[in-house]
Amino acid sequence: MSALAQDRARLEVLEAKMDALRHQLDTLEQQGQTIRDRLSQYTYPVLTLPPELVTEIFTRYIPAYPAHPPLVGTGSPTYLLGICRQWRDIALRSPSLWRAIKVTWSKETDARSTDIVASWLKRSRSSLLSLSFDTLKLDTVVDDLEAAATTILSLFVAQRDRWQYIDIAILPIHLPLLGGATPALVDAVLFTVNEGNPPPTITFSNALAIRSAYLWNIVPSPSSHGWLAQLTSLSLISVPFDEIIRALRLATNLIHCKLSVPLEEILVYAHIHLPRLQTLLLDFDDDHEECLRAFTLPALRRLELSGFDISLSVHEPLRALITRSACRLERLRLCPDNYGGDVVVRACVDALPDVTITSGRCSFYPTNWKMEEYWDPNCVDSDTDSDY
């Protein structure tokens, strides 16, 4: 057989095999399309849930309000936008997912934060807001973030009527931006730096809902009698004692109070009567005894004294406070910074046998000292505290 005849015969065999393979491929393609059609008609059970239930699941994915989720990444509501189109639509229509905003600064942070914050505020619609923002750390990051920080602050201030919880650290020059009408504000935590006397002031008008304020290097303005009277919790840190007196005389409904006073700021003849106060923390570097004489506290149950110079005789003004107030003091925490702290604690234990006394470190966190665990001797950290 010639070479030409061999090629023709070989081609016939190959074409026959290709026809058979094409037939097999057509059959497989038909089977695949049948399966695709069947799958396209299937709905995953999770996608049949009512939007209201999906929204509730999304809400439980992020930290409970007023705590803040991260702006991006795992744990952020933005993470839900990339799962599927249906969930993206539900997340974008759920204002409660976007109402707690915390801006943190790092070397990786850039101007995108401005766009992210603006989008969150828009998505939150008319929801009340929980905001956390610190501009005091910018000098430890990069200079070109200052413009972004200014823009974000302006975005927050524009939503002042929606503020419910705020935790803001800001330079004194910007503090006046935070004042004004805050009808929904419940809790305000504000920090600034001490640039000398007089300290900067803050006032909230129409603050009908406010119950808690934590002010560091900030003084309530003289016109603050309205919202101070509504507070049940007040912390004044590094505030002159005369300003503390003025504020406390207006804040007559306080249940919890923490005071930290600069050195040599005690007024000898001050008098403060707080009929409902149950928890008081005093951080003084000078004269605890004179400070204690200023108070009459009929409802006092928990007291903490901290600072460098807690006198060995501090139990005497403590007993006088209890007698004068006719209160039933239950817990006393002593947090002396000096080396004679143990002697002070044991003297108080001997003088006040009906009071549970612990020693340890004071807390400058805005809320943990209000928790029962902070005062429970059985929950005290053995590395930092001791019981007597």
Structure, explained:
The chain is an alpha/beta fold. Among the domains are: 1-42; 263-388, no CATH class. The protein has eleven helices and 18 strands. It has helices at 3-40, 51-61, 85-92, 112-123, 146-157, 225-228, 241-250, 288-292, 315-325, 341-351, 372-375, and strands at residues 100-103, 129-134, 163-169, 180-181, 187-191, 201-202, 204-205, 212-216, 219-220, 233-237, 256-261, 272-273, 279-284, 295-296, 302-307, 331-336, 356-359, 386-387. It has a twelve-stranded mixed beta sheet, with helices on one face. Strands 4-7 form a two-stranded parallel ribbon. Helix 4 (112-123) runs parallel beside helix 5. Residues 382-388 have low confidence and may be disordered. It comes from Mycena chlorophos. Keywords: Coiled coil.
Structural class: alpha/beta
Contiguous helical run count = 11
Mean pLDDT: 86
Query: Tell me about the biggest sheet?
Result: 12 strands, mixed
Overall shape: it is elongated
Order of helices and strands: HHHEHEHEEEEEEEHEHEEEHEEHEHEHE
First CA to last CA: what distance? 113 Å
Protein name: F-box domain-containing protein
Coiled coil: 4-38
Keywords: Coiled coil
Briefly say what this structure is.
The protein is an alpha/beta fold.
Question: What's the SSE blueprint?
Answer:
Layout: H1 3-40, H2 51-61, H3 85-92, E1 100-103, H4 112-123, E2 129-134, H5 146-157, E3 163-169, E4 180-181, E5 187-191, E6 201-202, E7 204-205, E8 212-216, E9 219-220, H6 225-228, E10 233-237, H7 241-250, E11 256-261, E12 272-273, E13 279-284, H8 288-292, E14 295-296, E15 302-307, H9 315-325, E16 331-336, H10 341-351, E17 356-359, H11 372-375, E18 386-387
Parallel strand pairs: 1-2, 2-3, 3-5, 4-7, 5-8, 6-9, 8-10, 10-11, 11-13, 12-14, 13-15, 15-16, 16-17
Antiparallel strand pairs: 17-18
Helix pairs in contact: 4-5
Protein name: F-box domain-containing protein
Keywords: Coiled coil
Coiled coil: 4-38
